[in-house]
Amino acid sequence: MSRKMIVAGNWKMNLSRREAVELASAVAAAGVPAGVEVAVFPTFPWLVPVHEALGDSDVQLGAQDSYIEPAGAFTGEVSPVALAELCSAVLAGHSERRHVIGESDELVGKKVEAIQQAGMTAYLCVGETLEERQAGRAQEVVERQLASGLAGVDAGMLHLLVVAYEPVWAIGTGVAASAEDAQEMCAAVRQWLAARYGEPGGQVRVLYGGSVSPANVEELFACPDVDGGLVGGASLDAGSFGTLVEAAGRLAAV
Fold this sequence. Notes:
alpha/beta; TIM Barrel; 11 helices; globular
């Protein structure tokens, strides 16, 4: 596989400081296989201690969100410029931000642009609800989110982009998309990127997220257009997360 696989752990609003440091230390100690990138996304208060726990390991540190401005009177928000002192990546448009917090497609696009302008990789999350899938609108919804999310991104910034397909109905439910469903949508995302940006667009890494676990990782990661996973629950346990990383390493070595 020419595209380097990624296994990224989104810890969401979980873990105490001690637990976060212990988990980060374990992930760092496990190492990163050749041909794979590993990243963790802790809650904001633990970015500094997790950064220290990762030390000089190859595990990347990311943030779960960012504001659209580099500085200013925006109480409670976090500047991408400030995050860039610690982080190499930031999530944008996770379904919980869209559907729980109420972020619009347009706001997500501004966040992607701000993250990249700060020199970090934007992980643009896209995905349909169960109702949208049942109505036959899944690809339409994902393509709309891609168009808005990447409105300010030109081909010269694709090296700072990862797309994560996360069907809303599979996130935190224990019900993962089938390998066929994941492959179909990740391939559609790649085709959309190639149509917009040409050959470089087709080389953007596309991840699957939504109840990825040691039980289904081999099947999901073996899909030709799935370049790894953005992992929720399984990333909170060092053993489970390590199993996912090892699976990615085996596939990367083929």
